[in-house]
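Duplicate of #3305? Posting structure anyway:
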């Protein structure tokens, strides 16, 4: 469906986004923003093909309002219609932190090698900045400190007195505990919804599946 898509309430089956095959739209009932005694239809955006355990599940990225079929000829879902799920944002940021800790994504491991030392920005893949440039604040998910570890200090056990020996190493270390989420990051922009690099996307899906299982039980 993309960031600007026609919506119509016609089926309960999830709809895969043709531009983002890992993104699914689930039709759910949502409490009316004004009248709490009634509900409205909305599309819950999710990276999981199975319907969310509830309309307010932490696995839902956010919501787009749906319209009843036939009530209007050309009503489009614009960017301002999207309502972000703050619980999902927290899950996503924690999944990224753990993914960096576990070294699940070669893109950011290689990025650390190239940077060697300093702060590395984790960019959303929907709008990758030119090489050597800092991306748009809306597209910077977070930042993490990279430590230059070309020289490691090792202790020699072969000598009666402990000496410190320098051993060269062509690696740079990501310090996951320094990871900081970017407050200005947006889950949905004119370039589309969140797009993580492959390793972090897999990590996030695993976390979302675990959360969905706990919410269902």
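Output from current build:
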């Amino acid at each position: 469906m993309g960031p600007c898509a026609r919506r119509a309430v016609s089926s309960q089956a999830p709809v895969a986004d043709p531009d983002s095959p890992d993104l699914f739209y689930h039709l759910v009932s949502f409490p009316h923003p004004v009248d709490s005694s009634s509900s409205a239809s909305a599309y819950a955006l999710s990276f999981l093909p199975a319907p969310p355990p509830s309309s307010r599940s932490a696995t839902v990225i956010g919501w787009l309002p749906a319209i009843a079929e036939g009530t209007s000829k050309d009503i489009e879902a614009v960017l301002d219609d999207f309502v972000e799920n703050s619980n999902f944002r927290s899950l996503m940021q924690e999944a990224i932190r753990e993914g960096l800790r576990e070294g699940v994504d070669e893109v950011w491991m290689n990025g650390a090698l190239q940077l060697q030392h300093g702060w590395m920005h984790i960019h959303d893949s929907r709008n990758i900045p030119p090489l050597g440039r800092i991306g748009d604040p809306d597209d910077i998910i977070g930042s993490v400190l990279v430590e230059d570890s070309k020289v490691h200090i090792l202790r020699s056990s072969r000598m009666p007195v402990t000496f410190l020996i320098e051993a060269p190493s062509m690696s740079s270390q990501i310090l996951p505990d320094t990871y900081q989420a970017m407050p200005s990051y947006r889950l949905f922009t004119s370039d589309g919804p969140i797009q993580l690099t492959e390793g972090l996307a897999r990590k996030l899906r695993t976390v979302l599946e675990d959360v969905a299982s706990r919410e269902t039980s």
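Confirmed duplicate; merging threads. The chain has three helices and 14 strands. The helical segments are 86-102, 106-115, 198-216.
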